[in-house]
Amino acid sequence: MTMNKTALVTGSNSGIGLAIARELAAAGYAVALNSFTDRPEDHALAQTLAQEFGVEAVYLPADMADPQICRGLVQQAHEHFGRLDVLVNNAGIQHVAPVESFPLERWDAIIAINLSSAFHTTAAVVPLMKAAGSGRIVNIASAHGLRASPFKSAYVAAKHGVVGLTKTVAIELAQSGITCNAICPGFVRTPLVEVQIDDLAAAHPDMDRDQVVRDIVLQKQPSRQFATVEQIGGCVVFLCSDAAAQITGTTLSVDGGWTAQ
């Protein structure tokens, strides 16, 4: 890995996104972190990453619900580094409700942030990668990009859309030296999931926390184990490597066997 390769990871000040940025930095990439906040601790996160891995790191705030800001974020990262080798579309939100009572504003926000943002950043980065003659686009979809669950109509629709977008972009760019793939995690142990576990444990006082995790949260994952954020990051690094040069337009499931059923 040369030290001058660069990556932009959207939604990367915590959880899966931050782990992806860390794994890319460990592999020698200069990284641009992103979220919608613009706090001192966000910028400090980039400084910590730079010091820990000896790479350049910058934090770029952006509202991924805004099409022009999405496109501007790509330009900003490209201008900062002078090149952009990797784009990881990770930004996402969730809301759970029956389809007939799903709040309109939550539907619009989930489609905008989970799906449309990936379209806008990709549209902005493709000309830059074409000019460079190479590039890697990695979309963080979900097992819900391949399977459905009740009460997640917006999220499932958006993630299915991300998988479809991935395939289309890959075919369009198949002879350009640019690949486009989607990683489809199952349940990953993140702070967000910890909150869900707490809520479920409270709703099932007859079960201990380990039982709730095994029998309710991980019911769909045959391994009965969470994927880790580091594993997702490692998969991104692999898809950006020379070994993955002929892997494009596909989904990589990291779901303990969920979608094999």
Automatic annotation (TrEMBL):
Key words, A-Z = Oxidoreductase
Gene3D superfamilies per the record? NAD(P)-binding Rossmann-like Domain (3.40.50.720)
Q: Does the keyword Repeat apply?
A: no
Q: What GO terms describe the biological role, i.e. biological process, of this protein?
A: monocarboxylic acid metabolic process
* KW Oxidoreductase (keyword) present: yes
Enzymatic class: oxidoreductase
Alphabetized InterPro entries for the sequence:
3-OHbutyrate_DH (IPR011294), NAD(P)-bd_dom_sf (IPR036291), Sc_DH/Rdtase_CS (IPR020904), SDR (IPR050259), SDR_fam (IPR002347)
Q: Name one GO molecular function term.
A: 3-hydroxybutyrate dehydrogenase activity
**Enzyme Commission numbers on file:** 1.1.1.30
One of the Pfam families matching this protein, by short name: adh_short_C2
Q: Which domain of life is it from?
A: Bacteria
The family line of this record is:
Belongs to the short-chain dehydrogenases/reductases (SDR) family.
Task: Give the protein name, as stated in the record.
Answer: 3-hydroxybutyrate dehydrogenase
**Source organism per UniProt:** Tianweitania sediminis
